[in-house]
């Protein structure tokens, strides 16, 4: 399949012609990747079972892992559900459009494979002008997992999508690099409280101002609250070690491995890169927001270096740090403390 590519620069006016071509392909039951504020999504008409099946095929995604339905506004959201807990309106007013995904009872409007047969559906309104323009042009919910081959780091640029999926999907809408860099927060909306199924762009601290957040208890591996939890994720092409300690400790681990003849890459903020000697430096900037924004690109970049091992610092688990550490712990092969 030839993968069409439309370049839409965010600084300029959005090219309506490109949007309507992409929407037409989606309406025709094809898959098109599009930018969101978190990562690129791989879209298909969520009401069309055959179209949605193409997402699973292109990504090599396990059939029991449900997808997020993306909508442009509250009206489209309401078409997918019969009733919502009262506090959801307040969450929507505070955080949508934005990186928050609501898992709520489905009314069955979306195709069965979107929800992988569950009674609930995940819905979100992305905060990205190109995504919103595309969703408005479609006027149907667009199912969209991250636009990567299953198991690989999520794509934060159109090039990442191209790398993984060219020839397997009908198109890519290139809206430039994404902002947040890690995926949306997924919450299960229970009657009087929410459970965070996946930490992400909206933090626990932010949600708690509106509705009680209940911690997820230790999951039984076979029956996770969110099917996505049990799968391997974000795997870089070389082993990733998280080193929990100061720069001296990180330096010691790296020196030991280099002593054995390994080429070692260090994935860290600039303040640490300046102090520690490694063969390859992978910069995560300075703030935790920078780290989130640069993480997946660096996990992908490693394969273009000749490093045998990647060592990362451990980040504080507050604010966006919760999402960062959640992803790194899934991507790592060892935790050294
Ligand atoms: O930021 C994001 O959320 C991106 C962009 C493209 O919107 N999308 C994304 O989709 O990360 P995906 O498919 O990679 O992750 C969706 C997560 C999965 O872990 C899935 O298991 C969970 O949401 N999920 C979807 N529907 C669910 C449901 N009904 N109940 C529980 N978990 C659900
Ligand atoms: Mg994903």
For the report, how would you describe the main beta sheet? 11 strands, mixed
Level-1 CATH class name of the largest domain: Alpha Beta
Element order, helices and strands? EHEEHEHHEEHEHEEEHEEHEHEHEHE
The N- to C-terminal Cα distance equals 48 Å
CATH fold title of the largest domain: DHBP synthase
What does this structure look like?
The structure is a single chain. The chain starts with a strand and ends with a strand. α1 crosses α5. It folds into two domains: 213 residues, Alpha-Beta Complex (DHBP synthase); 97 residues, Threonylcarbamoyl-AMP synthase, C-terminal domain (Rossmann fold), CATH 3.40.50.11030. About 1% of the residues have low confidence. The longest helix is centred in the C-terminal third of the chain and has 14 residues. With 337 residues, the chain is α/β, with parallel strands linked by helices. It is globular, with a radius of gyration of 20 Å. The site of magnesium ion (MG) has 3 residues, from loops.
Keywords:
11-stranded mixed beta sheet, DHBP synthase, binds threonylcarbamoyladenylate, 337 residues, globular, alpha/beta, binds magnesium ion, 5-stranded parallel beta sheet, 2 domains, Rossmann fold
Short characterization:
The protein is of the alpha/beta class and 337 residues long. The protein is 30% helix and 19% strand.
């Amino acid at each position: 399949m030839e993968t069409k590519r439309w370049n839409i620069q965010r600084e300029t006016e959005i090219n309506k012609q490109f949007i309507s071509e992409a929407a037409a392909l989606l309406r025709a039951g094809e898959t098109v990747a599009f930018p969101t504020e978190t990562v690129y999504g791989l879209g298909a008409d969520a009401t069309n079972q055959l179209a949605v099946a193409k997402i699973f095929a292109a990504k090599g995604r396990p059939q029991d892992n449900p997808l997020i339905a993306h909508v442009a506004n509250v009206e489209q959201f309401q078409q997918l559900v019969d009733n919502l807990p009262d506090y959801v309106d307040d969450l929507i007013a505070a955080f949508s459009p934005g990186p928050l995904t609501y898992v709520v009872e489905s009314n069955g409007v979306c195709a069965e494979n979107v929800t992988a047969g569950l009674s609930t559906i995940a819905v979100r309104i992305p905060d990205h002008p190109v995504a919103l323009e595309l969703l408005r042009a479609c006027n149907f919910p667009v199912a969209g997992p991250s636009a990567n081959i299953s198991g690989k780091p999520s794509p934060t640029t159109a090039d990442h999508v191209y790398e993984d999926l060219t020839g397997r999907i009908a198109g890519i809408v290139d809206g430039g690099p994404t902002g947040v860099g890690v995926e949306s927060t997924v919450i299960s909306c229970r009657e009087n409280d929410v459970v965070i199924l996946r930490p992400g762009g909206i933090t626990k601290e932010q949600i708690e101002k509106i509705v009680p957040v209940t911690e997820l208890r230790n999951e039984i591996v076979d029956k996770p609250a969110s099917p996505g939890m049990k799968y391997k994720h974000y795997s870089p092409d070389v082993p990733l070690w998280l080193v929990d300690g100061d720069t001296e400790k990180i330096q010691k681990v790296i020196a030991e491995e280099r002593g054995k003849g390994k080429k070692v890459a260090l994935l860290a903020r600039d303040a640490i890169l300046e102090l520690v000697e490694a063969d390859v430096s992978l910069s995560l900037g300075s703030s935790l927001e920078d780290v989130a924004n640069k993480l997946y690109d660096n996990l992908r970049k490693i394969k273009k270096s000749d490093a045998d091992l990647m060592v990362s610092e451990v980040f504080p688990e507050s604010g966006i740090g919760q999402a960062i550490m959640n992803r790194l712990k899934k991507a790592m092969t060892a935790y050294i403390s």
